[in-house]
Amino acid sequence: MQKKLALSVAEACAAGGFGKTAFYEAVKSGALRAVKHGKRTVVLSADLQRFLENLPAITPQKNPEMESGPSQPKADELCGGRSVVSSGKVRAR
């Protein structure tokens, strides 16, 4: 099957994984090039590919809690704040 050269708005949104509002915002800002064919708005596959490749990458951030290893939840956190018997004592949250 041959790859489509141009995509409708709905096809571009589905292929890119975003909605119409985000599509039109990208077109309005100039980040995504769209063209008109009569009344239809279409996006060239190459332009959609370029737009997606130029989106900023997510940079993972270090979480100090994750570096020290997983912490053990407290007994009352596991029980949703109900009273918990621990070491013979009743604690209320």
Structure write-up:
The protein is α+β, with helices and mostly antiparallel strands. The protein has a domain at 6-53. Helices cover 38% and strands 18% of the residues. It has a 3-stranded antiparallel β-sheet. Strands 4-5 form a two-stranded antiparallel sheet. Strand 2 (35-37) and strand 3 (40-44) form a beta hairpin.
Task: Give me a quick take on this structure.
The protein has 93 residues and is α+β, with helices and mostly antiparallel strands. The protein is built from five helices and five strands. Strand 2 and strand 3 (40-44) form a beta hairpin.
Map the helices and strands:
Layout: E1 6-8, H1 9-16, H2 20-29, E2 35-37, E3 40-44, H3 45-53, H4 64-67, H5 75-78, E4 84-86, E5 89-91
Kindly list the characteristics that best describe this protein.
alpha+beta; two-stranded antiparallel ribbon; 93 residues
